[in-house]
Amino acid sequence: MSADKQTTPALAVQGLAKAFAGVRAVDGLTFRVPAGSVTGLIGPNGCGKSTSIDCISGFQSPDAGQVVLGGQDIGGLPPHRIARLGLTRTFQNIRLYDELTVRENLLIAAQEYDGHGWLDAFLARRALRASEAAAGERARELIAEVGLARYDNLPAGILSYGQKKLVALAACLMSRPSVAILDEPLAGVNPTMIVNIERIIDALNRAGQTFLIVEHNMNFVMRRCHQVVVMESGRKLVEGEPALIRNDERVIDAYLGHAPQREPSHA
Amino acid sequence: MRQETLDLPLRERPRLRAAPWLLVAALLVALPFAGLGGYGLKIAIMAIVYAVLATSLNLIYGFTGLLSFAQIAFWGIGGYTAALLAVDAQWPPWLGVLAGGAVATLASLVIGYASLRLSRHSFAIVTLSLVLLMQLVAKDWVDLTRGPLGIPNLPTLEVALPGLGRFSSANPVVFYFIMLAFAAIALAGVHRLVRSRIGRTLLAIKQNEPLTQSQGVATLQYKLLAFAVSALVAGMTGGLFVFYLSVVDPSIFDFFYTQMILIMVIIGGAGSFWGVIAASVVFTVIPELLRVSPDLRLVLLGCVLVAAILALPQGIAGYFRERRLERIRRTLR
Asked: Is A108 on the interface with B (CB under 8 A)?
């Protein structure tokens, strides 16, 4: 496990805040994602997880706070700039280009990183064709890694829900991001696919990929995350290793409401 | 699970073979000499003009997903610019055509930058406002545009071919060939664009813009590029067309044109390069065929449109795409 390379965190969030019409969706959130780790972001529905990752990835502009990616402040930058700096994400409701092929879905996710402009693309210059071929090779490997090699050249729209999640995951990794944020990668998929996705995330992490994962599946969070951040009402409730979180009274309260008698075997 | 790769992409990519293309080119070149008569030639010219205009709308609406009512504004801006420069500033007409394209492109960048930062809906409304505004300018800014009577007696386009002599667009056959050559260049350019990875990105933006943003794509730039190219094509077409008519007046901004190219793009299949070109030809010819009954002409056209929408809700290209999807699903089962 490579989670203990804690010198510079891959991602550091400091005092992040975002309010909508007076509701403080995120209220001074601070946490770190160590390089090489799988960090879980959990909390009851409506606690501000989605708003937090929207702020981190540039889809919402934070009212206050800092988001530092590998030493660089990315707070308030537009999403495409943040992506180019090395932070990519998936979306809770799957987003894919349904009418493009699986391969094309991945190629688009890599194309803005190769430095070729419109003129190269329009003229189909040799250098561009070479880098598209290299991206195609990486796409093929990733598609094979998530077990969809057979569907490489099919429109993404005809895949099953779980398969689409795999394509979204693969696309998110095409540009070799320093941090990949996965928004509920396991939600709504069948148990076999959960095992599959979990295995893929684990393999990618062992290969060095840093993940920040929002997830409600506690078995997954407890098994796979090195570090867990628990949110409630826009704030961080606890941060620590899964074993610590599992038995924390405040976490149990937040999820189950006040428990007069503590039930230690939860989760 | 079987491991072979299935090769069934959704979009048709007809391989461009030489033989059928030479045949089509030969037919198009022979057409004016096939005894069409003046009326037939006029329809042929309009079919080419519509194919180019509809393709410019297809680029921004069909491929990029942005509904633009401004294509006719750009074509009118191109027409007025070319005409005014030729008459008032004595520019050679060809230079006026280029200037018409340039001014239309500039206009597209200004309104595109202002409206695309907001939303797709604001874009549609702003482009609609531009046509309405241009109609007013053409009618009421009399000092510049000569008002409702327009600018008559425009010069003709001259073509000098070494060894063959000089030709003037006063002859419709010559204008047919000028328009055909321009259409070939413009359509080849747009085709190249939409088949490049720029075109792939435009389709991606149409299907899911936030996802493209999360993948590092500066979507505003791509949308502006598509809009500017569509304006350039429409503006130059307008510039050429006014020299064929030899007059430009406010009717060039008529909503009739907008309606026709929208019909062509929707029934051809938004986002299908060839479907829209086919529909352009069909829907230039059909209204003319319906002239057999002048009273019922528009009623009949309405019936044709309703039938087309009922039979092909996704357009001509959409019909073929659905059949392809069916095949893919059957293969997967």
From this structure: yes
- Tell if the CB–CB gap between A112 and B4 is shorter than 8 Å: no
Look up the CATH number of the domain holding residue A52: 3.40.50.300
Closest C-alpha among B260, B263, B279 to residue B317: B279
- Nearest Cα residue in chain B from A57: B214
Residue where one domain finishes, among candidates A122, A156, A176: A176
**Do residues A5 and A39 share a domain?**
yes
User: How many domains is chain A built from?
Assistant: 2
How many Å apart are CA B312 and CA B308, to the nearest integer? 6
Burial (CB count <10 Å: 0-12, 13-18, 19+), residue B89:
exposed
Same domain? For A218 and A158 the reply is: no
On whether both A77 and A108 belong to a single domain, the answer is no
Helix-strand-coil percent breakdown of chain B, rounded to 5? 75, 5, 20
CB A16 within 8 A of CB A65: yes
Report chain B residues whose CB lies below 8 A from the CB of A121. Answer: 196-198
Shortest distance between the Cα of B165 and any Cα of chain A, in A, equals 35
Which residues form the domain of A58?
A: 1-86+178-187+210-267
Is-contact A140 A106, C-beta < 8 A?
no
Query: Could you tell me if A162 lies within 8 Å of chain B, comparing CB atoms?
Result: no
Domains annotated on chain B, with CATH: 35-332 (1.10.3470)
Helix (H) or strand (E) holding B243: helix B219-245
Give this complex's ipTM.
Answer: 0.88
Return left, alpha or beta for B225; rule: phi > 0 is left, psi -120 to 50 is alpha, else beta.
alpha
In a domain, A203, yes or no: no
Q: Does B210 reach chain A within 8 Å, measured CB to CB?
A: yes
Contact B211 A88 (CB under 8 A): no
Cβ within 8 Å, pair A97-B208: yes
Is A149 close to B3, i.e. CB distance below 8 A?
yes
Note the pTM of the prediction, 2 decimals.
Answer: 0.90
Nearest-neighbour CA in chain B from A196: distance (Å): 15
Same domain? For A12 and A53 the reply is yes
Give, for all 333 residues of chain B, the pLDDT tens digit.
Answer: 444 566 666 666 666 677 888 898 889 988 888 878 889 999 999 999 999 999 999 999 999 999 999 999 999 999 999 999 999 999 999 999 999 999 999 999 999 999 998 889 999 999 999 999 999 999 999 888 898 889 998 999 888 888 888 888 888 999 999 999 999 999 999 999 999 999 999 999 999 999 999 999 999 999 999 999 999 999 999 999 999 999 999 999 999 899 999 999 999 998 999 999 999 999 999 888 888 877 888 888 888 888 888 888 888 888 888 888 888 888 877
- Chain B residues close to A112, C-beta within 8 Å: 215-218
A199 within a domain of the structure (yes/no):
no
Shared domain check, A149 and A118: yes
